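Researcher: Quick one. three chains, 1065 residues in total.
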Amino acid sequence: MDRLKKSPWMLHYDASSCNGCDIEVLACTMPRFDIERFGIINTGNPFHADILLITGGVNAQSAQVVKQIYSQMPNPKVVVAVGICACTGGVFKDCYNILGGIDTVIPVDVYVPGCAARPQSIIDGVLKAVDILEKKKEAQTHE
Amino acid sequence: MTRVLSLILYLILAPFVGAFLDGIDRKITARMQGRKGPPIWQPFYDLFKLFSKQMIAVNSVQLLLNCSYLIFLAVAGGMVFFGTDILMSLFILSTADMFLILAASSDSSPYSNIGASREMMQMMSYEPMTLLIAVGFYLATGSFRVDEIIAQETCAFWMMPGLFVGFILIMAIKLRKSPFDLSTSHHAHQEVVKGITTEMSGPTLAIMEIGEYYEKMLLLAVVALFFIDSSIISWILGIVLCLGVYFLEILIDNVCARVNWHKLLDICWLITLLCGGINILILMLI
Amino acid sequence: MGVILLYLIPIMAGIPLIGAILIFLNHNAKTRGYTIYATVVAMMISALALMITWIQDGSNTWYLYTQTEWMDKAMQAFEILLMVFIVYMCFKYKRRWISLLAILQTGLTLWVEYTIPLVESTHTQVDSLALLMCIICAFIGGLIGIYSVGYMKSYHENHKGVLDRSSTFLALIFVFMSAMFGLVLSSNLIWMYFFWEITSVISFLLIGYTKTEEAITNSFRALWMNLFGGFGFAVAIWLCAMWNHSVQLNEIVASANPMIIGMLALAGLTKSAQLPFSTWLFGAMVAPTPSSALLHSATMVKAGVYLLIRLAPALNGSLCGTIVSFIGGFTFIMTSLMAIAQNDAKKVLAFSTISNLGLIVACAGIGVEQTVWAAIFLMIFHSSSKSMLFEAVGATENSIGSRDIENMHGLILRLPKLAYVMGIGIAGMYLAPFGMLISKWVALKAFVDSGNVLLVICIAFGSASTMFYWTKWLGKLIAMHKPRVPDRDVTRKDEYFSMAVLCAITISLCLLFPLLAGYVVNPIVLSLFGATTDVLSMSELTTMVIMVCSVLIVPAMMFLVTRMAPRDIVPTYMNGINVGDNSHFTDSFGQSKKLHLSNWYLRFEFGRRRLLKPSQILAASVLIVTFAVLLGGVLS
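Model:
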């Protein structure tokens, strides 16, 4: 059963990123890296997505949004935190408005550190997430 | 017997052939954009995945309306492959599309409502041409019935080249190709959050996509109808030209920028009047 | 024929009249309601009785009442009364010039009656078309009568400013039906003209019911346009009498004199609100809904169409026919475009009524068997679906206090029953494979066969825009959106009864399509043309019935299938800032804000302001040129 593995659709959300990682995410979809060759589509819609890819740390305003988008994704689903800010809060960790990494509001499956994370590592992270997706699906069917 | 066979083959094979063509489309598109592109079987993987996802919905009727959309498309296509009335089939096609619009408007979601409105606009743009094409077949061959159209001595294309041009245009709308992919697009996944399909997830979306494959096969069948006559060679020619037209649509898709609805309506109605209207006029006069 | 037959027609026309008098005199709402129910039932029974006796008699055309000295005198007296009344109203509301029209035409007909000797002939004619009109009028009109009992109560509860003259209003509705019976059963132009005038005047009174400034303006507009058509009618009578010494409708159709046909067609065009005379119909929407439903679905506008269908054999291939079909086709496309820009539900219905009538008129103008076949079907389906829609909109207006389509968002959860009625009505108006669409299909086929490319294009574009405005309305209704404050459904039982019966009629008409074609429409075409062809073969008709069933069954089946599918309901996507109720979102200040969704109305493109004037001017100039040509033909 490798249905999910071959067609992971992702949703990219910018929680409070400086746009550095965002540009790298976009670079993944460009001809040089072309993530579509793995069947990955950057959907922009939680209802269609399997992978939630978040850049930037969570702040007071984005916390609710992250939670809601996550809740709108159908199971099985995985979360990839891209960039050091999304992983831990990064240099903004101690800012008054930053709650910390993405894992402060929703469970994160894959951490892709870097400032900014390189496209290669982002693709690597997404493909790792796909494996976790598969495991989650199996766990779901066993339940 | 052949009619029943072709109907059954259509109902069973259309989604597969449609998905396969979609895979080729994505590959060719990727190559045109200088990318490697997904595997040819990608649409199948996508469909399998969508069916294995959790069923979430924003309301209780969307799935029902989407299923109706699928069934009516299958019925509309089935009518063509069974060899019955083409005008009726095109009417049913509009009814099917209306179910999709209702599915999108059934939730008070801003994005899918935008998609629904745009879909209605697209429908208004291509509807006159579909009717004129059916009328054109009637004038050229003396019948609305598909089985009589394909039994002609010479193919209908020579009588209705203007309508054929118009059909390529509305096919671009129906297949959601640029420059007419207003309501939802195959490439720009984030634009209006996929428009009309915004609130459809998992199996609901898969059903809608299968519906689109049925629609695609129906449209290609109409293309073939322009070329098929009583000889066997014309069937081969028809299939080859279908693929040619399909490639042309992909090409148009990749070289055109999207137009706004105003332009869409103007272009479609103008071409319908010019190509379709004049073609019909000539057919009536001769 | 037994003696009883001679009394059937006066009884049928008399029942609503007597009912009207009783209703008028009765000011107790409760007993008045019962009177209305009784009248309606009696009316339906009498119409059925007439039909059954006619069928038992062998379905031949009856020509009755040759000697009607006494009746003629009464009619003349009444015509003078009507004229005096119109003149009085015109002077009272300072629209004096309109009185000229009334004086001229009444004078003309009276002068004709007294000076020109006419060949003695019958005055009444019962044939299949007339009977069909009677049945439509008795049943659909009757149901509207039942509906209006409950409606008027709610109406006056919601419109405290309007003086309650319900008994007059209800009485007028029944007088109108009586006149309508008279109109369709007349075989003689003078009689027909008499009833024609009555319908004009009563529609004027009904439209002006509220007596607001707007209502008065609109009612006088309706009056002058209809009187103008009536004037054409009077001229036609004069010409007939002068040239033929006979005013029998059949003979006119047989002789096909272009000038007379032209004048009668003009009358038909004004009555059926074709361009350039369309403005009276959408002005008429100020009146309480039962009158709109009655005037614009089953009776008044159908009278114009009825006349044109009668004339159809004479219109075939003539200049008049070409012009009538052009005006019809043109009206069809222009008004369906203008309907896109309307957000008032009744206005949408008004425009769609005009556009559908345009199609019927176009069919009648071509005047061959197939087009008339389509025209009659369109007429039947239009009456049932449209009256249902009007009723549902009126009931909705009473319940939610607005008839704006935007305010009907999510009606399926707020007022489910009304939403279903509306939905069925809308589906009946445009969806494949319901009646209207099938009739449109036949019309298209007939236009192609008659080689009229202009009409083919009109129908292609017109049906596209028709689709647009109905679909967006349907989309509004079906939005699954629970309001915070539930709406109270104030629709009364009799209103629901009327709507439910109309629903059943609409659906069963679609299901009984082949029977309808075989037993109703074919005989009518046969009687008009002396020949009939099966426009759609039986196999096509049965396919259609199967399709209708599938349209009804597929969603129902899917409902059962999908109901079992387990699913989790989540909020709709609003960029993650959905407050949770799908109708509010968090704005940038952290406050919750209401979401407003609106349909497209494209006012700049398809608004009345942009399209109405040019199309009126075009249609009017076409008419003027035609009449100049006709006049030239007469004088030379």
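Chain B touches chain C through 66 residues (CB under 8 Å).
Researcher: Thanks, that's what I needed.
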